[in-house]
Amino acid sequence: MKKTRRAKKKKRIKRKTTLILIIVIVLFSQSICVDLEKSNKVDTVTSKVLEKNEAVKAQLDSINLRKDIYSEYYINKVTSFMASDSGKGKIVFLGDSLTDICDWSELLNNNDIINRGISLDTTDGVLNRLVEVTRLNPKKVFIMIGINDIGKGRSTRSIIYNYKKILDFIKENSKSTTIYVQSLLPINKDILKTTTKNEDIINLNKELVKLCNSYEVKYIDLYPLFVVDNNKLNPEYTVGGLHVNGKGYIVWKRAIEQYCN
Question: Which domain range does residue 142 map to?
């Protein structure tokens, strides 16, 4: 009897031990599967990031820096922008000399603002270097470009065509970025000797309004804030008839500061 009881007890213990081992093996297998799944997800995310970085690098390498096309100043500015990653997720001011001249972060008391203005730039120049801006995935982009295009004799139609490509590129490559298009400012031909026509500036601004409406982009109309009789840039806000002085930038600041937070 005692031997029979011992044998039965051993069998029970063996069955329990076997069951425990089975449970441990199952749990261990599930743990391995979960870890593998997590690992695969991490590998997938890492792979996507690397692919995106490679794509951005290829786009950066495609920026045209030929000396026979672009000025030394343009090349120096673009390459210095490319050397920095500190602007990621910030607010970008993009444009020509009117943007370039101002220290926007100081004017608006906002350290999250970076300046991507280049003197004498055009819509072509902005398109050429735009990947340097979108790679930063900026929170917001404020654009003012086109006065130098007009000065070079380009038609409103061709400038708007480039604007469309600018907006399309930003929307495609930096989807979370909020875009603001600012009107061109008037010029003062009593001071500035130029063939640029006031009518061309007005017409481009009108077309920009239509473009922004179609793209559901915010248009900021600065023109009325700077103009006096006969479509002239207010002489109080300029020295040379094209660029604005400190007083002018304060007017500009008041018009946009509500959008810069």
Answer: 86-259
The domain total for the chain is 2
Segment holding 131, helix H or strand E: helix 123-134
CB 238 within 8 A of CB 245: yes
Helices vs strands, H then E, count in the chain: 10, 7
Assess contact for 204 and 210: CB atoms under 8 A: no
Asked, for residue 91, whether it belongs to a domain, the answer is yes
46-86 pLDDT per residue, tens: 554 445 566 667 778 899 999 999 999 999 999 999 998 87
pTM given for the model: 0.80
State which amino acid sits at residue 228: V
Does one domain contain both 102 and 209?
Answer: yes
Do the domain assignments include residue 72? no
The candidate with the shortest Cα–Cα distance to 123, out of 182, 164, 177, is: 164
Identity of the amino acid at 119: S
Query: Which amino acid is it at 77?
Result: K
If you write DSSP's letter for every residue of 20-62 in order, what string do you get? HHHHHHHHHHHHHHHHHHHHHHHHHHHHHHHHHHHHHHHHHHT
